[in-house]
Each structure stands twice: as structure tokens, then as C-alpha cells.
Amino acid sequence: MSERLVVVGGTVLTGPDWRPGPRDLLVEDGVIAAVGAPGAFDGADAARHVASGRLVIPGLVNAHTHAHTLPVRGVARDWTLEVSLLHGAWMGAARPAELAELCAVLAGAESLASGCTGVFDLVSQTGGPDVAGLHAVARGYERVGVRALVAPMVADRPVHDAVPAIGACCGAGPSGLAGAEIVRRCREYVTTFPALRLARPALAPTILAHCTPELASGLGALAAEHGLRLHTHLAESKPQALAGADRFGRSITRELARLGLLGERLTAAHGIWLDDADRELLAAAGAVVVTVPGSNLRLGSGIADTRALLAAGVRLAIGTDGANSADALDALDAARLAALLSRTGTHPPTDWLTVEEALDAATTGGATACGWSDTAGQPPTGRIAPGHAADLAFLDLGSRAFTPANDLANQLLTAARAADVTDVMVAGRLAYRDREVSTVDLAAATARFRDLVAEWHERHRPAREQAAAQARAASAALATLRAAPWPTDRLLGGGQPGPPP
Question: pLDDT tens-digit profile of 343-391?
Fold first, then answer.
């Protein structure tokens, strides 16, 4: 017996044209079977979801986040990326599988509340990949009803080595697992991944300068063998770009190409400190760049040139990052910030991100970043069209954001907030109904999460204090790196551009 559902009475807004109109939807087994005029499916033998007074859009995709950071929301006030990396060891410190799963449950619930139906989650685990913990994260997303790619975020070089200025101030960093052992554990993670409806595995060499060539190449080969997405942080900050160029003798993007990692399966987050040649390489390879505007502002990393990325032919997606730097996992807000930040440079208004480009990045761009636009045997996501997954978000057209209803697409991007989202459907099932998560007991999950997090914080307090001391020791050196010359400047009011050292 197939599951059939009719969504009636809604105003549908979807790409590629993003023009709203009254439409009814026929959904069969989680897939949109047909889109018709109002009343077109009145005779269908199907359940009904009444969407009167609702704007119906494709579910947003958060193409870059970290559920493991949920316990540290708000701890950072003036951290840069490098300071965050110094704190990374305790932020990713060991935790029971129950806490790992609850992090995903709560992150997934928060994502749903912003109209998000899918996430790409990079999970850091100090000491190397913990297969049981990673599977727990996947089960958490499955419980709450959100699509997820879950990737162990790994490295075999500490930030003290990857950014030598930090090592010079703070001494040697902690030693970890060898690259070969990390790859072995990642293989175990992938080959023993549980059979889940919505969650799938991926791999994530966290930052290329933090990975030996053996680790990066090993993960690339493993991803190719199993047809998995590969996700990395690319040129996120000026110190990272400087350290990468110094170590590789070329840009980080060119090193990705040399290692054979630059291809259609690659998703690269941030992409701030790139040049034209980098963008051309990314476009030619078919890689996806995820702009992460809230985190980039929060950590002072700079502003990605999204217009230059699109002009080069790079596929663009949008992410929130983790609760340590986002701090809210709000996909709708991330899309708004991406659009607004395209207006901060010297581009004329005709070169700002259009409403349609921003909404595409938040939907089909994210789907591409996660491999959900071309997975064999699976319906694509990101559009409201026959053959696409019924991943839908419903917003209240009676809210202030849409009053008066002058330009619904523009108002969705510039005025709407997560509070305007009333319902979210993933693969034809309502996971968020009447502004409440309908799949889990969220109150109980939150209470248990608070108890476990309090214990976890107390256990890792000494490591946090040590990281803070190292950050203070490295502050002057990091400030010097942030002011160093670079061919382009992605920091407003920064120093004069110049050749890299």
C-alpha cells in the first residue's frame, strides 16, 4: 500500500523562477507525484494536509553545521577561528553516546523550526573517530525526522603545527592518532553504518593544513570507493590561508587539486580567502562552496565574495556552522545574511545576490552540497516539482513578515524569521506541526541534555582553562597574521592588499 497525501490550499513558492501561486500537491510515498491547480486532486484517495494561509516552499538545507558544539553555545565572545580551534579539543571531548544522540536531536529540532529539512553535520571527536558516537548522531537526526549527512571531522596535525605562529607561542600541540588509523576507523564507520531512512555517512578532512597528505588522500580514496561526499573547511580565515600557502607552496585549493580531492563529490565550507584561479578550479571540478555568513561574522573571518563564486560557475550553498560560532542553527537567517553580505563590497547593486540566487543556494544548492540532487535511486530535494522529495516548509502568510504581501519571495528572504515557520514535512511526513516538533518528546530530551551537559562541562573544565591560556599566549601573533598582506582583502577596513609572504 502506498502512502498518499494531498497538500491543499497553499501558496507555492519554488525555484527556479520563485514566483508564488496557488497550487495543490499530490504526494505518494514521500515523493511529489503531481502539482496541480487548486482542487485538482479533490477526488484522490489520500490523506489531506490543509495549507490555507500558508506559503509552501522547498525545505531549506543547512549545508554546514556541527551538532557536537551544541553544549558550548554562547561560550565564545571574542574568539577568532584560530582561538576556536585551540578550544576544539575540549569542545569535541569524549561524551556518552546518549549525549551525542541528544545533540543531534536538539540540533535537528532547531533546524526544523527554521524551515530546514536537511543538514550536513561534521562531528569532531577528540581522540579520533568514535564509531558508536557517530552512529548515535545519525540516529538522533533520524529520530527527529531530518535528513542528515553525518561526517567524522578528522585531522592528524594539531593547530599548533598547522599554524606555526601558534606553535611558536604555545609549544607542541597534542598528539593524536596516525592518519592510517583514522582512515581505518572511518572505514569501520562507513561499512557498519546503520540502515536508516534519512541519515547517511560522509567524510570530512577538517582543514587541509591540519591533515597529512596520507590522511587526506586516504579519505579521498575511501569516499570514492563508497560514493560518499567529502567535506572540508576551505580558506576560512587569513591565518589559515597564509599557513596553507606557506606549507604547500600553493593555495589550499590548488593543493586539493594536486591531491586529487577536487571533484564533484567535494563540498568546501567558507571559501573566503580565494583568488580567481581558485574559484575557476572549484568551478571546473564541479565542487560546491558553502558560504557560512553568520559564523564568518561571529569569528571575524571575513566576507566571502559570493558574486565572484557564482560568476566563476561555482555551485553555491548556505550553512550556519555550529552553535559555538553560529550560535543559532537558523537556516532562514543564514540565507538572509548571505544575501545582505553580498552588498558590503564595491559591487554595484546589479551584482548583489538576487533573491532567486540566495533562495536557490539555500535549497537546491544545499541539496547539491549533500548529494541529494543526484543520488541514484533517490528523489532529488530542493524543488517543489514532480519527482522531487516532499521536503516542504510552511510559513504563516498572516504574519507581519508577509503583511502586506507585496513580493513574497523577497519578503521570505528579508523579513521572514523562524517564528513564521508553522510546519515542516520531510519525505512526506510532518516532523514539525503547528510550531511543535511532532516526532520526539522535546521537553524530556532537553531536560536530559541539560543534565548531561552540566556533567560534561565540569569534567572538561581544566582543558577549557588550558585552551584559554594558550589563546591568550597566541593573541599577539594571531593579530599579526590577520593584518598580514594578502592579494585580496576580505576583512572590511583591513590592511592594504599585497603579495602573500
Answer: 998 889 999 999 999 999 999 999 999 999 877 679 999 999 999 999 9
> In this structure, which amino acid lies at residue 137?
V
Q: What is the mean pLDDT of the chain?
A: 95
Q: Where do the H-state alpha helices sit in 119-163?
A: 131-144, 159-162
What is the CATH number that goes with domain 4-58+380-437?
Answer: 2.30.40.10
What distance in Å separates the CA atoms of residue 271 and residue 237, rounded to the nearest whole number? 9
- Look at residues 456, 464, 452 and name the one whose alpha carbon lies nearest to residue 90: 464
Alpha helices in 172-237 (DSSP H): 179-191, 213-226
pLDDT of residue 494: 52
In contact, 363 and 380? CB cutoff 8 Å: no
Number of Cβ within 10 Å of residue 400's Cβ equals: 12
The domain locations on the chain are: 4-58+380-437
Q: What distance in Å separates the CA atoms of residue 277 and residue 55, rounded to the nearest whole number?
A: 41
252: left (phi over 0), alpha (psi -120 to 50) or beta: alpha
- Taking the C-alpha atoms of residue 271 and residue 292, their distance in angstroms, rounded to an integer, is 9
Q: Which residues does residue 396 pair with via DSSP β-bridges, in sequence order?
A: 54
**Spatial CA neighbour of 32 closest among 382, 424, 394:** 382
SS3 of the chain: helix, strand, coil, percent, to 5: 40, 20, 40
Are 229 and 371 a contacting pair, CB within 8 Å?
yes
Provide DSSP, 432-481. Answer: EETTEESSS-HHHHHHHHHHHHHHHHHHTHHHHHHHHHHHHHHHHHHHHH
